[in-house]
Design brief:
The structure holds 2 protein chains of 2 kinds. By secondary structure, chain A is mainly alpha-helical. Helix content of chain A is 81%, strand content 0%. The longest helix of chain A is centred in the last third of the chain and has 38 residues, at 187-224. The radius of gyration of chain A is 21 Å and the shape is elongated. Chain B is mainly alpha-helical. The longest helix of chain B is centred in the N-terminal third of the chain and has 35 residues, at 31-65. The radius of gyration of chain B is 23 Å and the shape is elongated. The chains are: A mainly alpha, B mainly alpha.
Chain lengths: 225, 235
């Protein structure tokens, strides 16, 4: 309990929030990094998954990529990139490693969502004379949306969690508070940093769950218009 | 003739000196270090996953039998899974100190979510008719659980076990921050000394171990459930 109260006083001390390397700066870095990586991963994964899901091809590929993604330690990818020529480009290695890590869950969930659309519904839409792209945008995408959003939520939470690893390789973000705590042998600071990351991850999870509840309802209304 | 030319008295011009990514000399000179790291990696993974199974089965059974328990059990394991690995190790630091137990405790908490969810999904998928038939044959609750429900939940449980094991093998590397990261130690040290061959070799070994473990568990699953049609489980 002693460590916890010390961690609490570390967290609530105003000095630790301001200035260079303060909590405010690290929190901003962490959020920016996560958002950039999430947007990039979505831009890469979702179009591919939607087209493959629409065509009904590449399912084995999507599953295999997802499984391989789990087996490759993000930390190893990050360090490999750091030591390669890419390593000269500031946050470049971190962003690449995190995007590689976030693509698999997005890809699988979106693909599974697209394939999960009732085949009768698809056949009916085709019978009404919908073209491929109309079918994709007007029928399959809205129906697959819940699962696609689940994929986005999983990716977002995992990104918040994994962005901490950037600090091990000298990058920014909340992980920096933890690694600095380890270097100073200051357990209260380590615990305080961990609490911050965990709180942010849970917050993102909560926001995403709320978003998932709102968006599909909107999609359904759009269909009835 | 371009190529091999060494000045007299210069250091040996091998791949270690040139700091190349792929280096046979690294493998032969550091064999023992690599073996120790692989062994530590395997031990940490095996102990954590085994402990997680021991904890997950009763939790899943409890969530299945007592309906009020399902919500809290799932919520708790989900929250545990959301906490970042580096943060998890850090949060447990006051309890375990800088030790292998710290890494193991963190990994157990991670594997728990995947296992509980999959075992529970497997138990819930047992058809009611099957349970009634077993009850009709005079099976008590314990015998029903041990000889009917758990074996039928095995394919889904094994799917969870495979994901948990592969994730654990990759997460062990983060344990490097407290010095118990198996191959992660070599990656971490290699990063600080800019030792390319060490980083690449350790990373590749991590992936090889993960793939090998996945295939072994798949084989075990097929042997243990000869009746199943070999489709994957939930999640």
């Amino acid at each position: 309990m002693n460590t916890l109260s010390q961690a609490w006083s570390w967290l609530t001390s105003a000095d630790n929030w301001s200035g260079d390397g303060g909590i405010t700066q690290r929190l901003t870095e962490h959020i920016v990094l996560t958002v950039v990586c999430l947007v990039l991963s979505c831009l890469i994964a979702l179009p591919v998954a939607l087209v493959l899901g629409h065509l009904g091809r590449g399912g084995a590929l999507a599953v295999n990529i997802a499984n391989a993604g789990r087996a490759v330690p993000t930390f190893a990818v990050l360090v490999l990139l750091l030591l390669s020529p890419v390593g000269n480009f500031g946050e470049g290695p971190t962003v690449i490693a995190l995007v590689l890590f976030a693509v698999p869950p997005l890809l699988t969930n979106a693909y599974v969502g697209m394939r999960g659309v009732d085949r009768d519904v698809v056949a009916a839409a085709r019978g009404m004379g919908m073209t491929g792209s109309q079918l994709l945008r007007g029928v399959e995408l809205p129906l697959a949306l819940p699962l696609i959003l689940t994929g986005v939520r999983i990716a977002a939470v995992q990104l918040v969690a994994t962005a901490t690893i950037a600090a091990l390789a000298g990058g920014g973000g909340l992980g920096r508070i933890i690694t600095a705590g380890f270097n100073l042998a200051s357990t209260p600071q380590v615990v305080a940093g961990a609490v911050l990351v965990a709180a942010l991850a849970l917050l993102v999870e909560g926001v995403c769950v709320l978003g998932e509840r709102l968006v599909p309802a909107g999609a359904r209304q759009a269909e009835h218009r | 003739m371009p190529g091999k030319w060494t000045a007299p008295g210069a250091p040996p011009d091998d791949c270690l000196a040139r700091n190349e990514w792929i280096c046979g000399a690294y493998l032969s000179t550091r064999r023992e270090i690599l073996q120790d790291a692989v062994l530590q990696h395997l031990q940490l993974t095996a102990v954590s996953v085994a402990l997680a199974v021991v904890v997950a089965v009763p939790l899943a059974v409890a969530a299945r039998t007592a309906r009020w328990a399902a919500g809290p059990v799932l919520a708790l394991t989900t929250i545990l899974y959301t906490i970042p690995s580096l943060a998890m190790f850090s949060l447990l630091l006051p309890v375990y100190g800088l030790s292998a137990s710290l890494v193991i405790a963190g990994l157990v908490l991670y594997s728990l979510t995947l296992l509980v969810r999959n075992i529970l999904a497997g138990l819930r998928a047992v058809p009611e008719e099957t349970r009634q038939a077993a009850r009709g044959l005079g099976y008590g609750p314990l015998r029903l659980l041990l000889t009917v429900e758990l074996p039928l939940a095995l394919p889904a449980a094994m799917a969870g076990l495979r994901i948990a094991t592969v994730s654990a093998i990759s997460l062990v590397t983060i344990g490097a921050i407290v010095g118990y990261g198996g191959l992660g130690n070599l990656i971490y040290a290699g990063m600080n000394t800019y030792f390319k061959a060490q980083v690449l070799t350790a990373s590749v070994l991590c992936v090889v171990i993960a793939v090998a473990a996945d295939l072994l568990l798949l084989l075990a699953q097929r042997l243990a459930t000869p009746w199943a049609k070999h489709q994957g489980g939930a999640e």
